[in-house]
């Protein structure tokens, strides 16, 4: 009977220790960062895809672009509204979103991801 009480007490302590980070931080999540657009991005008012799509799927789009450029030698992307864009992170995306620290890094830091884009691409191709 004494062992039963010790086991139950041990399980309670174990469960409390394991779940501590969850209930300690309950309701304390930081809000997602607001993106800071450059003047050129604000003036353009449109991106290659909708804002909602780009927030959720920009990496998948960039992977498709990379595949099409490298493997198929396709350089142009036709957006849903029929506009043509060069499939280029440096010349298309960073043309409007040139402030990497204010645009890219804020969300990537918030999501704790380290994209490998910058292993090959420079973050300020036009030297602005």
UniProtKB/TrEMBL annotation:
<keyword id="KW-0812">Transmembrane</keyword>
<protein>
    <submittedName>
        <fullName>Cytochrome c</fullName>
    </submittedName>
</protein>
<keyword id="KW-1133">Transmembrane helix</keyword>
<keyword id="KW-0472">Membrane</keyword>
<feature type="transmembrane region" description="Helical">
    <location>
        <begin position="7"/>
        <end position="24"/>
    </location>
</feature>
<dbReference type="InterPro" id="IPR047668">
    <property type="entry name" value="DsrJ"/>
</dbReference>
<dbReference type="InterPro" id="IPR036280">
    <property type="entry name" value="Multihaem_cyt_sf"/>
</dbReference>
């Amino acid at each position: 009977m004494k062992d039963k009480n010790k086991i139950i007490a041990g399980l309670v302590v174990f469960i409390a220790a394991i779940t501590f980070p969850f209930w300690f931080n309950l309701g304390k999540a930081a809000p997602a960062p607001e993106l800071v657009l450059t003047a050129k991005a604000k003036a353009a008012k449109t991106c290659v895809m909708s804002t909602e799509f780009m927030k959720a799927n920009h990496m998948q789009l960039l992977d498709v672009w990379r595949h099409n450029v490298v493997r198929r030698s396709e350089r142009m992307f036709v957006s849903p509204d029929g506009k043509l864009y060069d499939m280029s992170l440096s010349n298309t995306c960073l043309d409007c979103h040139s402030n990497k620290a204010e645009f890219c890094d804020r969300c990537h830091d918030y999501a704790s991801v380290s994209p490998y884009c910058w292993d090959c691409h420079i973050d300020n191709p036009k030297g602005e």
